[in-house]
Amino acid sequence: MKPALLLAALLLSTPARADWKPIEKIDTYAVSGESAEQLYLSIGEKGPVVGTAGNARRVIAHTFFKLTWQRDYQPQGGACVLKTARPKLIITYTLPKPAGKLGSALQTRWDTFAAGLIAHEKVHGTGIVDMVDKIVAFSTGLTAQNDPGCKKVRAELTAYLDQLSKAQRQDSRDFDKLEFGRDGNMLKLIAAFLGGG
Q1: Which helix (H) or strand (E) holds 167?
Q2: Residue 197's pLDDT is what?
Q3: Handedness of CA 97, 101, 106, 109 (dihedral sign)
Q4: b/e code 125-149 from CB counts within 10 Å (16+ = b)
Q5: Beta partners for 66?
Q6: How confident is the model at residue 182, as a pLDDT?
Q7: Helix 185-195 / helix 36-46 crossing angle, nearest 10 deg
Q8: Which of 92, 96, 71 is closest to 153 using CA atoms?
Q9: pLDDT band at residue 37 using 50, 70 and 90 as cut-offs
């Protein structure tokens, strides 16, 4: 059974952001082998585990994000205004890395494979950043009348976040379905790595 990449994000362009920037990190896990096949089997044995206990599986690579907020809710008369919403977004890409030195031909194949993996994961990262940009745009200046405790504003924001999160996950699944489908980029990348093409 071939490992599959985690369904992580949207394939969308990212608008310019004036006042915040995501933090991107790369974590690696060690794989070993003296051939493409051995390295790929090692990925299957050591790749990150995703999903819940009954649904857990190993994947080739993984995009994870942690998102926290600084929000400034301001009561104005009887209304509530969300003046600012500043995100702190940390995106972590987990990727395989050979533990030992590879022969030059195998290293060339690995480099091409690794470049394709990070390119795929970066699309997930771009989708996550786009989602956060949408949250910032929606949040900033969000106002509710007759809301001195800012409960209505928070409820409206929570409902929007839920809707956006579901859409992001669906777009992510659609993207990976395309990438891993017939003639998809990821299947071609794996086949080229294993076949030496």
Answers
A1: helix 151-180
A2: 53
A3: positive
A4: bbbbbbbbbbbbebbeebebeebee
A5: 90
A6: 87
A7: 130
A8: 71
A9: very high
Amino acid occupying residue 84: T
Q: How many residues does the chain have?
A: 197
Q: pTM of the prediction?
A: 0.84
Mean pLDDT along residues 141-168: 93
- Other C-beta atoms closer than 10 Å to the C-beta of 60 total 25
Residue in 56, 67, 63, 15 with CA at minimum distance from that of residue 179? 63
Percentage of residues of the chain with pLDDT beyond 90: 75
Per the structure block, which two tokens stand in for 163?
Answer: 């809707």
C-alpha 19/C-alpha 72 separation (Å) is 15
Q: Closest by alpha carbon to 164, among 192, 135, 193, 121?
A: 135
> If you average pLDDT over every residue of the chain, what do you get?
88
